[in-house]
Amino acid sequence: MLELILTRFEDKELFPLTRRDIFKFLVMDELHTYSGRRGTDVACLVRRLKWHTGTVGKLICIGTSATIQSGEGEDAKKIMAEFASKLFGEEFKQENIIGESLEEAPQRTVMPYPPKVNVTRNDIECFDGSFESVLHLANKIHDTRIEATDSDMLGQRVANNPVLAFLETSLAQVKSFNDLVDEYVQIRKGIEKNDASLKLIAGLFAGAHVKENGKPRFSMKLHTFFSQGRGINGTIEESNINLTDKGDTTLVSKNTGDELTAFQIVFCQACGKEFYYGSRKGDKFIPQDLNSSSEEAEEELGYLMMGHWKEEEAPLPDNWLTTAGKVKKDKQAHVPVSMRFDNKNDTFITTGGLEVVFIPEPLMFCPNCGIDYDKRSAEHNKLRVYGRIGRATRQQMC
């Protein structure tokens, strides 16, 4: 998208000549993915952006990655600095690389567990992060009364607390809270799971706020995992289409009340235009799933776009044509075809019905925006497919 913005006349206002200093930072996440051909393309794009905005040698470039590693005998920081310098076209020194290292938990003389659980749900609900509320919870999980005037002093008082020591040891690896509770119940025989949950929550709250060596004892992170969805299916209609993400194969039309076939909907990465995915067998259009293998697909796979192709607005690229203006032989099978479609019977017809465009797979040309591809581009790099992959996030909590 940035490449398009840099070339379109209507986007020149985004880069005013009077504000050449407006761009300060360029941040790129997942830096490790920019290697090979893709890395070369992005590196050239970064240089064009800097030239376009007058920020060569001035732009502060930042790259983040959790998976850049060095091989045996290699200096990781040196390798990363060289890689970043090539990608951004700016000098990166080894001291510019910020890494991470594991800080081992100190050896502790852990106190015995308190004989009973004193934490209540009200204690948890009333916790507001103030020192007073932290001290209150610390006393609830400690065997003896604690007196402290600040977080550092409180950290010293609870240094050997058994609940905090358990959390510190058990959370060396990521695990769910339910697993943590089960593990605690195994250690503290006879304690109810609900009481164990309250005590551990109190320990997490207190541990995240008390300090050791000037830092919070616990650096809490919340991990959230999103599973892969089923994708979006919809009815083939001119407007007001019925959509579902539940895997339905048929849906009732909001326009006519008829039961219509639901086709997977995918989107052009360049312009966002929606296409219906399926296979063409004779005059029939059969639903398919782009997320699944196409080995069982019948006949010609492709995409259906509503409306007819306006060739004057999105003409075929010049490199698709001969000097005589004819479509080259190796491109003919990829030219979109304007057709008519009967959505009640899922058939292509000669008169009536809906105006559609059939685009053969692989997608080599988008008849909506005019972008074209070569055969080396993977289909999933050209199209956005809802629910294709799962995601995981990690959020620092304090």
Describe, in plain words, how this protein is organized in 3D.
This protein has 398 residues and is α+β, with helices and mostly antiparallel strands. The protein has ten helices and 17 strands. It has helices at residues 2-7, 36-53, 76-88, 121-125, 131-140, 151-157, 162-170, 177-187, 193-207, 379-382, and strands at residues 25-28, 60-63, 211-212, 215-216, 221-226, 233-235, 243-244, 250-252, 259-268, 274-281, 284-287, 300-306, 337-342, 347-349, 354-360, 383-384, 391-396. The strands form four sheets. Strands 6, 7, 8, 9, 10, 11, 12, 13, 14, 15 and 16 form an eleven-stranded antiparallel sheet that branches. Strand 1 (25-28), helix 2 (36-53) and strand 2 form a beta-alpha-beta unit. It is extended. The mean pLDDT is 86.
Helix content range:
10-25%
User: Over the alpha carbons, how many angstroms does the gyration radius reach?
Assistant: 30 Å
| Bulk shape | extended
Q: What structural class results from the helix and strand content?
A: alpha+beta
Biggest sheet descriptor: 11 strands, antiparallel
Main attributes of the structure:
alpha+beta; 398 residues; 10 helices; two-stranded parallel ribbon; eleven-stranded antiparallel beta sheet; extended; 20% strand
Topology:
Layout: H1 2-7, E1 25-28, H2 36-53, E2 60-63, H3 76-88, H4 121-125, H5 131-140, H6 151-157, H7 162-170, H8 177-187, H9 193-207, E3 211-212, E4 215-216, E5 221-226, E6 233-235, E7 243-244, E8 250-252, E9 259-268, E10 274-281, E11 284-287, E12 300-306, E13 337-342, E14 347-349, E15 354-360, H10 379-382, E16 383-384, E17 391-396
Parallel strand pairs: 1-2
Antiparallel strand pairs: 3-4, 5-17, 6-7, 6-9, 8-9, 9-10, 9-16, 10-11, 10-12, 12-15, 13-14, 13-15
Helix pairs in contact: 5-9, 8-9
